[in-house]
Structures are given as structure tokens and as C-alpha cells.
Amino acid sequence: MEPSLAVAAPPLPGWPPRRRTMAGGPSIALALEGQLRLDDQPALHRAVALARQSGARLLVLACRPQSRRLRGPHQRRLEAQALASLHARLVAQGVALLHHPQLTTAAALAELRPQVQPDAVLHAEESRLFATWPVAADRFPRVFSPFRRALERDPEPPLPPPDLAGLGDSWDDFPRAWLVPPVPPPAAPGAGSDPRSAFPFPGDEPTALARLQHYLFDSSGLRDYKATRNGLVGTEFSAKFSPFLGVGSLSVRRIWREVLRYQELHGADEGSEWMKQELLWREFFLWSEQKHGDAFHAPGGLQQRPPDWVEDRKRFARWTRGDAGHPLIDAQLNELLTTGYLSNRGRQWVASHFVNELRLPWTWGARFFEWALIDAHPALNTGNWAYLAGVGSDPRSFGGSPRRFDLERQVGLYDPEQTHRRLWAPPVPQPS
Ligand SMILES: Cc1cc2nc3c(=O)[nH]c(=O)nc-3n(C[C@H](O)[C@H](O)[C@H](O)COP(=O)(O)OP(=O)(O)OC[C@H]3O[C@@H](n4cnc5c(N)ncnc54)[C@H](O)[C@@H]3O)c2cc1C
User: Fold this and answer.
1) Looking at ligand 1, which residue's alpha carbon is closest to its atom 20?
2) Low complexity: which segments have biased composition (predicted)?
């Protein structure tokens, strides 16, 4: 279980630090590692406890997270918005945020030395419902249902933002260029400002928390979630939490806690139970990736299937420009390329068409999604693509074939008026 707010500081070699004579004195650094929020940050609580215990100042480092992630323009814009907001809120509390988007934390610390040499560096961790294996690693199942049944405990409660008062101290020794507030890049035409967008929000933490409040308590969103979650158009058919989770401006444990609060108020209805299930899917893929490592991302997937596709680069290149050769899919791709967001149903159609009709390697599609999606996450993206390609955790695909969506039937079920198709039909090329 996550400890309570009084987080015990781990013993550190050479602790407590000697007061140095250089400007600023001893310091404790929190490396954000892409977790751009103050709420539910266990590492921030530990850093604050260490700083208070030793009279050190706190500084926050925002560098390029060291991971296999491929961040595309939509996600980078969201990330910059989240970072700018966090910067402003930390500075308002007197705490410096030093940022260097090109360097990893290790490289940034090397560059900062000897001007700034933190006595301890704590690293923020990705938000998960469970801090340690929710099902023992050696018994971790390959498919979701046994995972859910085997869960050994409840998700851990979130921590509130810590009190940062008095932890800033002097900033004289910090390089000025690193303290300049980050400026979010302007939105590409359409992105973030397109009135058709299903995700028209900025990526910062206050917006994330406002969205959580809106979807759970100020609208019928969560209550109706099970009925609406396969929708294709608009902001309300699903929660739109994933882009915030992707840039770490929202904690999944905060979402879970608020869903429980909703259930205390309104009872455990279908919508809230289904939301818990989807959040557990996220958890399942995160821990699966941790369990299987590179095999999780390998073309043969967890099932180690031999490849069954055609490496047609021309066809793939056309697809990346939004030309899949099917009007339904082209509309989905147009939405994806313009806004970075795509409904879950739309993603399933696109991936199924890519694998079953175009017969292209699923890893190509997954890699492109990782660049294009506003909520891209390697584990969630690969987990879902591999599932649909029949090499991952779809129980039906073990020993069988991948799930194939009958697109005409799907349209009849989920877009009978062709609302999405008309809204996102790609522009017809004009003769030159
Ligand atoms: C081919 C494909 C690729 C995908 N790539 C990503 C990705 O890179 N990043 C990502 O966050 N999600 C991915 N998903 C999962 C899912 O489509 C999105 O999480 C969801 O559409 C986000 O919108 P929402 O927050 O409104 O979802 P909601 O339906 O409101 O769900 C709430 C939350 O539950 C979790 N969730 C829901 N569905 C899934 C799922 N299938 N797998 C894992 N978690 C889920 C997400 O955290 C989501 O924010 C992918 C799905 C497919 C089919």
C-alpha cells in the first residue's frame, strides 16, 4: 500500500548533506520524468520530506524522459501546455522548475554540475493503480480476465499535492536559460482548435482535474459511459482522460478514487463499473509490458507468431497520408492526423483494416499511431495493436485468427447516419 502523507525518507549515503558555501546551499531535486502534475506524486512527497528534514531547498527538473517513447506533434503540444502550467504553479510557490527538453535527467545533471549539484535526486514514476505487482510476476496471465480475477488487493489511494511553502530558497546558482518559462508551440492548423475535435482541451493539470469533475459529477458522462463509449463524434461519448494520462497531468489513482466517490454518492451503476474495468485494462497492459519486455513489442508478440503480412511500403506510405482506400477508414485517419485523437472504436476499425484488408505489418501501424496519437503510450498502443493483430492478449486469437471487423456492419451499428464519415471525409483533391 502507498504510505500515508507522512512519507518516510529513505536512508541515503552521505546523509544529511553538508551545507555548502556556494549560492543556494544544499538541494533536493525531483526529476519529473514526464509526470507533469503536483497531485498524487509520491516522489514529490519524498523529496519534500527530505528537503524539510535537512533544511535543503527543493528544485524540480523537467527533462526528456528516458524511455522508448516516440512523441509526435500532437502529444508534444499537450506536453508543453502541461509543463507551462506546472512551471507557473511551482514558481508561484517559490520553487524553481529547471527544464531542458533535449536532455535526459542524467545528461542534464551532468551539464548543471558544478553550478548545481543536488544532494539527492528523486525520480517521479508513471501513474499506476498499483505501485508493485498487482498479481505476482511469475503468475502474471497473458489475457485480461484471469488478471482481473487474480487481483490481490485494491488500487492504492492517491496523495494530495504537498505543501511546498518555504522550500524554494535562492535561485542565484541556477542557469537562467533553464528557468525561462516553456512556451507551448502554436497549434498546427486544425489541431486543438478544430471545432470538430473530440479532444479540444489543453493538456495542463487544472484542465485535467476539471475534466474529471465534469465527466463524473457535473454531467451524466460516467453514468451513461457504458452506453456511449463506442461513440465516434464529440467530447462526451467517452471520458477523454487518456491524453492527460499520457502526459502525466492526471493520476489514474485520482480517477479511481473519484469513481469510488461517485459510487458512494450514486451507487455502483453500469457506467462506473465499466470505467473501472477500462482503467484495469490500462493497468493490465502496463504490467504486461513490464513482464514481457521486448517480446511484448516484437512482431510475433506474446504468441511468437510467424509473420503473415506483405511489406508493401508504397501502400503504407499512402495510408500514413490518410489514404487507406476505404472511405470509412480514410475519415478516421483524417481525424487522427488533424487532431491526434481517435475514438476507441475508430482505432479498432483502423487497426483491423490495416492488418486484415491491407495485410501490412501491424508493427508499422503501431509505430505510426505512436507518432500520431495525442495520448500515445507504447504499452497501451502496442498492447491494443497486438491484440487486434492476433499476436497479443486476445483469448480468441490463441491458436486462431485475429479479430476481423466487418466494416459495413460496424457502420450500421455505430454510425448509422454516417455522421462521422461526413464530418471527417478527407477533402477532395482539386485538379491542378
Ligand atoms: C489500436 C489501438 C491503439 C491504442 N493506443 C492507445 C494509446 O497509445 N494510448 C492510450 O492511452 N490508449 C490507447 N488505446 C486505448 C483506447 O482506445 C484509449 O485509451 C481511449 O480511446 C482513450 O479515450 P478515453 O480516455 O476517452 O477513453 P475511455 O473510454 O473514457 O476510457 C477511460 C480510460 O480507460 C483506459 N482505457 C480505455 N480503453 C482502453 C484500452 N483498450 N486499453 C488500455 N486502456 C484503455 C484509458 O486510460 C482511458 O483514458 C488504443 C486502442 C486501440 C484499439
Assistant:
1) 344
2) 189-198
Q: Could you state, in order of their start, the residue ranges of all structural domains in the chain?
A: 25-125, 313-423
**Pocket lining for ligand 1, CB < 6 angstroms:** 229, 238-242, 245-246, 278-279, 281-282, 285, 343-344, 347-348, 351, 369, 373, 375-377, 380-381, 384-385, 388
CA 141 – ligand 1 centroid, Å? 20
Selected residue with higher pLDDT from 203 and 394: 203
The architecture in CATH of the region 313-423 reads Orthogonal Bundle (1.10)
Nearest CA to ligand 1 atom 24: 240
Question: Which whole number is the average pLDDT over 341-350?
Answer: 97
pLDDT digits (tens, 9 = 90+) for 259-293: 999 999 999 999 999 999 999 999 999 999 999 99
pLDDT > 70: percent of the chain? 91
Q: CA angle, corner 222, sides to 217 and 227, nearest 5?
A: 150
CATH 1.10.10.10 fits 25-125, yes or no: no
Binned at pLDDT 50, 70 and 90, residue 184 comes out as confident
Indicate the average pLDDT of the chain.
90
Same fold, 25-125 and 313-423: no
Q: Whose CA is nearest to atom 5 of ligand 1?
A: 381
